[in-house]
Design brief:
- With 434 residues, the chain is mainly alpha-helical.
- It is built from 18 helices and 6 strands.
- Helix content is 48%, strand content 6%.
- The protein has a 3-stranded antiparallel β-sheet.
- Helix 2 runs antiparallel to helix 9.
- It is globular and about 80 Å long.
- It binds acetyl coenzyme *A.
- The site of acetyl coenzyme *A has 17 residues, from loops.
């Protein structure tokens, strides 16, 4: 990895001698980015990039991905090191503040988050408004948005203290809101948070405990959950993070912005893929059916995809998938599951796909979702909660990116352009003449 060189790019309009010089903005690593802000003024043209595959919409110091090499760094630290040596709350501090905390800073941050885990009692009433069979993503989308209605005294987005307290509130309360969405779907009493527990431990406690009896969270499972949260904490300018930034660019409050991010994460192309992996493995059923399944995936007319494979940015093994695979083995061992047919099938499927020309030539490798569904299912978490869990983790990334944007003096309202392909101006036709 090397730093990118500054310079410029000259664009000439065909058939004329009009040119525009586009400065190349260097990042610390990664490709340079052509600054097109003056292109319209100089040449009268916009750029076209549906899906924003080649467009940078902001400066950011938080997360770096090299999709070709399969590298993911948070504030410069490789995800492998963070997953092995750090904790989710330490990673949250790092993402928000830019540096790893000292002992004292870590303690203060931990206390700051854990002191905000309870939600206003009136927020409980919101749950009763949902049908019992409501999808937990629908519930958390609504309830997180409703948090905006509870903190009128600290919603000044231009006040650094207000931004800080909103970040604490979101990181602390989203697990409570998520666990209660689950409890509501089961018809079980809501469990209040326990601030003497670790972050992931408390989340598992609120989901699994009942008031009628003591509940001890298995430390191996708490550690696995903490690692899963680390792996999902941030992923630079993905769809949901870009949604949070776009909403935030208008000056909307952080609770509304995070609710927008949750809505964006809900889609199966983003947060819902691990659920699809489990469904796919169940449909394949047995390793003897893998060749038929792979043949279907390769058939252009079938619309079947190998779920948990491929990524918009990674054209190599997603580094998070490797850690997820190791965590999967740890969790199954701890739970005494010697032979998990789903895991065996996934390992076999992965082996076959990684040696198949179709996947090699298209650079399709396992992504973070290939193994995560198997772990979560083994931990007893229902599939409807998979994306919710992702949202709990990604809240940290969203609020860090939102905070960075708010502190960037060059930030302005997000407002993409379009290629208009509709009618040119025409006159209104009265109904009797249509
Ligand atoms: N199985 C089979 N073929 C695939 C797959 C797959 N999983 N993914 C991509 N391809 C093929 C496409 O058919 C296409 O082939 P073509 O060039 O012959 O038309 C080529 O690879 C490129 O695919 P695109 O869809 O253009 O790639 P894009 O970057 O738009 O899509 C995506 C990325 C959505 C993740 C895709 O790989 C996919 O659908 N994967 C399965 C779903 C999944 O696992 N999503 C989780 C992503 S990780 C996350 O959000 C946390």
């Amino acid at each position: 990895m090397s730093s990118t060189a500054a310079g410029s790019l000259t664009v000439t309009m065909n058939g004329s001698n009009h040119t525009a010089t586009l400065p190349l903005l260097p990042g610390t690593i990664g490709p340079a980015v052509a600054d097109i802000r003056k292109l319209y003024a100089d040449l009268g043209v916009f750029t076209y990039d549906p899906g924003y595959g080649g467009t940078a919409a902001c400066d950011s110091k938080i997360t770096y991905i090299d999709g070709d090499l399969g590298i993911l760094l948070h504030r410069g630290y490789p995800i492998e090191q963070l997953a092995e040596k750090s904790t989710f709350l330490e990673v949250a501090y790092l993402l928000l503040n830019g540096e790893l905390p000292t002992d004292a800073e870590a303690d203060e941050f931990h206390r700051g988050v854990m002191l905000h885990t309870m939600v206003h009692e009136q927020l409980r009433q919101f749950y009763n408004g949902f049908r019992r069979d409501a999808h937990p993503m629908a519930v958390i989308c609504g309830v997180v948005g409703a948090l905006s209605a509870f903190y009128h005294d600290s919603l000044d987005i231009n006040n650094a203290d207000h931004r800080r307290i909103s970040a604490f509130r979101l990181i602390a309360k989203v697990p409570t809101i998520a666990a209660w969405a689950y409890k509501y779907s089961l018809g079980q009493p809501f469990m209040y948070p326990r601030n003497d527990l670790g972050y992931a431990e408390n989340f598992l406690y609120m989901m699994n405990a009942v008031p009628a009896e003591p509940y001890h969270v298995n430390p191996v499972l708490a550690r696995a959950m903490d690692r899963i949260l680390i792996l999902h904490a941030d992923h630079e300018q993905n769809a949901s993070t870009s949604t949070v930034r776009l909403a935030g660019s208008t000056g909307a409050n952080p609770f509304a912005c995070i609710a927008a991010g949750i809505a964006s994460l809900w889609g199966p192309a983003h947060g819902g893929a691990n659920e699809a992996v489990l469904k796919m493995l169940a449909e394949i059923g047995d390793s003897s059916h893998i060749p038929d399944f792979i043949a279907k995936v390769k058939d252009k007319n079938s619309n079947v995809r190998l779920m948990g494979f491929g990524h918009r940015v990674y054209k190599n093994y997603d580094p998070r998938a490797k850690i997820m695979q190791a965590t999967c083995h740890e969790v199954l061992t701890e739970l005494g599951i010697k032979d998990d047919p789903l895991l065996d099938l996934a390992v076999e499927l992965e082996k076959i796909a990684l040696h198949d020309d179709y996947f090699i030539s298209k650079k399709l490798y396992p992504n973070v979702d290939f193994y995560s569904g198997i772990i979560l299912q083994a931990m007893g978490i229902p599939t409807s909660m998979f994306t919710v869990l992702f949202a709990v983790a990604r809240t940290v990334g969203w609020i860090s990116q939102w905070k960075e944007m708010m502190e960037d003096p060059s930030q302005r309202i997000g407002r993409p352009r379009q290629v208009y392909t509709g009618h040119v101006q025409r006159n209104y036709v009265p109904v009797e003449s249509r």
